Amino acid sequence: MNPRLDLLQPYPFERLRQLFAGVEPPAGLRPVRLSIGEPQHATPAFIQEALVMNLRGLSAYPTTAGGDALRETIAAWLTQRYALTPIDPAHEVLPVCGSREALFAFAQAVVDASAAKPLVVCPNPFYQIYEGAALLSGAEPVFLNQLPENDFGLDLDSLSAAEWSRVQLMFVCSPGNPTGKVLQLEDWKRLFEYADRYGFVIAADECYSEIYFDEGKPPLGALEAAKALGRTGYERLVVFSSLSKRSNVPGLRSGFVAGDRAVLKQFLLYRTYHGCAMSLPVQAASVAAWRDETHVRDNRTLYREKFAALKPVLDPALPVQLPDAGFYFWARTPIDDREFARELFAATHVTVLPGQFLSRESRGVNPGAGFVRIALVASHEECIEAAQRIASFVARRFGAA
Q: What are phi and psi of 135, to 5 degrees?
């Protein structure tokens, strides 16, 4: 077996299962799971219909590059969403079976394991796929702490020039999971300067890009920032996005990568052997989803209403700030985050995710310690009920107002 498999840490939800072992929550309370970022709003009917109406496509092998209709639809969406010079659907877009699969595979294609001690940079806290992808590609993951005292910015100065010179790939998540931080143009300018200076590729994870508060101010995207800074060829930049959060279809496993055509050409070669082509029915459903914005606006409204309703309930107990975007509260805990999550579950049957399960100690700091991630994915009624249980638990346990 690949010895690097032994370097992988248990996934956060396996650690959560172990944390809750032996705990029996109150039987009279229905469970409310706010731990996993799995959208639970209804999948739009027209997407389901497009999938079913094209089931005849199951009789054909799909191409790894995807059909023209899907690539052209994604290119049109990107061009419109980010006010770009028209994206080339043939060379700057590649459909993928969800961003998770593609983020992992991308590191395997990009990292040159024969180089001396290659590094892959990850935000911290982070989506654990980044770490696993780095380790199994033959690289060492290094982490940039994102702390509240620095407005959750990426601490680029925490790595030395010698370390940056070994970096081959950098994962960036904006809007961030779990912090909700959206990178601004100055942040991207500095990231591009580092990529140019040290020659690494940026993998920008934007799967939360369509969950935001102000309809007039959507989050800045990496391709949009590149264009604004004169980088129209998107050198050393590849963006990952998905329909899972945007369109409430996590089971569809549909997304895309877009950006640097030279990088995508090589990534397509890798994927031809990797065996991850999107089926034709899923492609048809994806075309329908990317072409419609009404359901996306409706989806944002549901999250907006939940944030507005939950914040005043949680604030007296767990002071929370609205994220820049996304559907998480990143909340401080009055005790160790693992103990808090376990006690909360035992008392209320509400599940939240300890921040330490989403982070690693770096430079003597674990930026997830003392936080929990609260995913506002359940129904409005369930989220309100969960917030009330959390507030009552904190008041009883810690004497909060």
A: -65, -45
